[in-house]
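Consider the tokenized backbone below.
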């Protein structure tokens, strides 16, 4: 039985590792784990332990050294306060969970000769692996929680599959390490387990653990305080009265001195950092970003093609319905304490000024509430579903979630901006649409030339043939049409347009648009005003080893 259980863990961890190593380039400027919001969450650690710099002035040098020179991935998280000093926009809780991996990365960097600057390869990989470790450790606590309620191993491991493959957890484990939700998921699992342990054993140390975990959750994201409202649900399920847990016979206040001190110390961390950064004890670090509780986007948050939680991860809808059915049949109290926390958090999250929470897959702030959703789903499955039902439900929708994760990561669909038409026209599509430039019917065609000829670019042949137009006057727009493919997604392959007199030069990188099989695509370039010259276009492989095949190039000049 132990070997059989281990297979689930081996398969799950292997899938994530293979995904991370095959789809991510953590050493490349465009694929680093410390990116986006993670730059802010993480910056507390190098600022405190490497640079001793509360102003984060080291960030500008880090951007030049490790990130794209065009600053396309620049993230300025420093918010200026009234006294002229700046603070980190985010709360520091996530940096506490990052810390073990940060210090291990410092050791690895020192031993193997990498820069001990907080951003070299060991640090990038350390933050990436923190997601894997925390997620699977969290699952261990969640499955231990299920066992305490006599949930069968079969149900538990199908819930395992549901969480890993059937939700947006897969996306944020493999493709995107820039947010806090996987780490909060870990803490939510420990919170559930510690609540159950306190109810079952009546040992005060678990009460203290609940307080410390809640403190960590709050200083990662203050809205996580809502999780505490799930505690009455467990009391109802165990038919335990809170007064019995707090009675003098089992609850000794002296035992709380240490956990209370630890919990208060954790809650004090944001205030200490604010004082260190700005000489102010209390600040609102999110600037003009705030909640609008009068105008929540409830329906959009739940069901929209743009970013609907239940539309993009439909297994969450089935889990929610299952939980509602199970708890409704238990008692009205169980139903209320299952529905109330979820309703409150959905209302709060949908009231945020940016209710889509940017790009990415699905409603990412709901990831930390998946353990509570899985609780209801597990009870429902244990009582009402057979194994075949779980197979038919979880396997296809897990496949859908993984395909859509790929689509979002590769810009086949645009997370946060997807329309109904785009969703269905790209359903299960695994390749990006070829770019297609359009011209106005009012624009006048001045010159056109092209060549239909196959040529292969490789390590020895770096440039394609050139297509050149006649001399034109006062041109405004160029449209380049070509048929091209490449053996891999090398970002160095580019399209180059220039004027013959050398006064104009512009290139465009193909990036992820290239596939092995050549396909037609077109691009639009704005031209300088008041020029009289001819233009020519060619493809350059950036002196890389990438093999690219070009079958046709056509250049059109418009006024």
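A designed sequence for it:
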């Amino acid at each position: 039985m132990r070997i059989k259980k281990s297979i689930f863990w081996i398969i799950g961890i292997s899938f994530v590792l293979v995904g991370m190593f095959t789809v991510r380039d953590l050493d490349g400027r465009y694929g680093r784990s410390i990116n986006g919001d993670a730059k802010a969450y993480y910056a507390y650690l190098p600022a405190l332990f490497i640079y001793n710099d509360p102003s984060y002035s080291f960030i500008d040098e880090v951007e030049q050294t490790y990130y794209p020179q065009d600053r396309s991935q620049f993230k300025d998280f420093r918010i200026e306060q009234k006294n002229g000093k700046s603070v980190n926009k985010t709360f520091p809780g996530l940096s506490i969970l990052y810390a073990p991996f940060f210090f291990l990365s410092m050791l690895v960097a020192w031993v193997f000769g990498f820069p001990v600057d907080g951003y070299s390869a060991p640090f990038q990989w350390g933050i990436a692996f923190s997601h894997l470790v925390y997620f699977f450790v969290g699952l261990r606590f969640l499955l231990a929680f299920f066992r305490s309620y006599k949930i069968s191993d079969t149900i538990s491991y199908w819930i395992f599959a549901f969480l890993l493959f059937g939700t947006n957890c897969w996306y944020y484990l493999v493709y995107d390490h820039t947010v806090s939700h996987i780490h909060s998921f870990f803490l939510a699992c420990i919170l559930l387990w510690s609540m159950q342990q306190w109810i079952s054993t009546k040992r005060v140390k678990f009460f203290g653990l609940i307080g410390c975990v809640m403190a960590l959750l709050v200083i990662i994201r203050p809205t996580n305080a809502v999780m505490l409202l799930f505690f009455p649900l467990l009391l109802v399920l165990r038919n335990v009265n809170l007064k019995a847990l707090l009675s003098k016979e089992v609850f000794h206040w002296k035992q709380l001195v240490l956990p209370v001190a630890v919990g208060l110390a954790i809650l004090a961390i944001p205030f200490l950092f604010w004082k260190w950064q700005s000489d102010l004890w209390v600040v609102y670090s999110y600037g003009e970003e705030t909640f609008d509780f009068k105008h929540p986007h409830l329906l959009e948050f739940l069901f929209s093609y743009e970013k609907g939680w239940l539309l993009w991860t439909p297994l969450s809808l089935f889990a929610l319905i299952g939980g509602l059915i199970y708890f409704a049949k238990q008692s009205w109290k169980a139903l209320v304490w299952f529905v109330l926390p979820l309703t409150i958090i959905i209302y709060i999250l949908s009231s945020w000024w940016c209710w889509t929470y940017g790009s990415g897959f699905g409603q990412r702030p709901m990831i930390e509430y998946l353990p509570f959703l899985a609780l209801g789903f597990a009870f429902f499955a244990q009582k009402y579903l057979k194994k075949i039902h779980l197979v038919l439900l979880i396997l296809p929708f897990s496949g859908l979630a993984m395909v859509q994760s790929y689509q979002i990561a590769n810009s086949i669909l645009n997370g946060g901006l997807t329309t109904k038409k785009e969703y269905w026209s790209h359903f299960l599509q695994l390749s990006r649409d070829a770019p297609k430039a359009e011209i106005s019917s009012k624009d006048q065609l001045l010159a056109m030339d092209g060549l239909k000829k196959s040529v292969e670019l490789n390590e020895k042949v770096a440039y394609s043939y050139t297509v050149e137009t006649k001399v034109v006057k006062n041109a405004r727009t160029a449209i380049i049409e070509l048929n091209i493919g490449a053996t891999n997604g090398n970002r160095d392959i580019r399209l180059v347009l220039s004027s013959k007199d050398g006064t104009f030069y512009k290139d465009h990188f193909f990036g992820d648009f290239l596939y092995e099989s050549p396909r037609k695509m077109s691009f639009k370039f704005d031209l300088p005003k008041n020029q009289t010259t001819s233009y020519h276009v060619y493809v350059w492989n950036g002196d890389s080893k990438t093999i690219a095949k070009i079958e046709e190039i056509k250049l059109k000049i418009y006024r």
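The two ends are 74 Å apart (CA to CA).
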